[in-house]
Amino acid sequence: MRRRQRLTPEDKRIINLHDGERHIERYSFLERFAHFAHLLSLFVLLFTGFKIYLGWDFMSYHLALYVHMIFAIVFILANWVLIPYNIATTEVPHCEKCKSGEHNEFIHSAMNIAGRYLLGPQDFKNMYHIMLNFIGKGDYPAFTVYDVKNKGYIGKLHPVTKFLLVFEGMAVAVIVFTGIVIYNINWGFFGIPVSPILLAIGDFVAPLFGMGTIFFMRTLHLAMAYFFIIEVIIHVGIIEMDPKVWKYHKAIFIGGHEDICDHSYVKLINTETEAEA
């Protein structure tokens, strides 16, 4: 049975500054739901996709195709509706200057969200120190930054995860668009000839690689499947196979909360009272 963490005087002071709240919401229910929908649909798409491609015997071709198409819709909704909505509406630290009108609240929120999800100079510094840590030189840097006084995250994501997000966004677009063409070369949406447009782009690009358009689309589709497999291995296996980071697995899959007194990979800022400042 796990021992209950003993609070230090500093922990108690931080909790008091945080209005007596020890646990903070790291992931909302909708964020956890979007992550689960993305992960579930990705695994189902990989299994059914390789069944269709390789001819595995665990289900019929038609059933695999049917399940594949259903979870393709789930995958699209999770990545192009739920996740963007969660990013756009994520909570940011309170700002008194925004409330008083000195700062533009929209710009302040947008800059905070951009810093949380886009790679910046500090992320590259953290990745450098992470590499040093892997060879036994230096401590693992804190990648979670929480503003105690203003109750909000400045940063949540591991720097390598932020690096992978750029490529994941492109991979999602490529695998969806090539999948549309593979599914139906005449598919359209609200009168827009989506597949013919994609085929026209493919007719221009595919010859550069010495391929026919359909074969080029299939090759890209398969390549993106392998990319997602590699990304999952990096994301789960290399980055987070550490008992101290399991708290984030628990947060994203179960409770959504984080203990403000667990300082592993966490940096707390604005921890002084007005009298101390």
UniProtKB/TrEMBL annotation:
It comes from the Archaea. InterPro entries: Di-haem_cyt_TM. One of its GO terms (cellular component) is membrane. This is Cytochrome b/b6/petD C-terminal domain-like protein. GO terms for molecular function: Methanosarcina-phenazine hydrogenase activity. Keywords: Membrane, Oxidoreductase, Transmembrane, Transmembrane helix. Its EC number is 1.12.98.3. The chain crosses the membrane at residues 36-56, 63-83, 163-185, 197-217, 223-241. It is an enzyme of class 1 (oxidoreductase). GO terms for biological process: respiratory electron transport chain. SUPFAM superfamilies: Transmembrane di-heme cytochromes. It comes from Methanolobus tindarius DSM 2278.
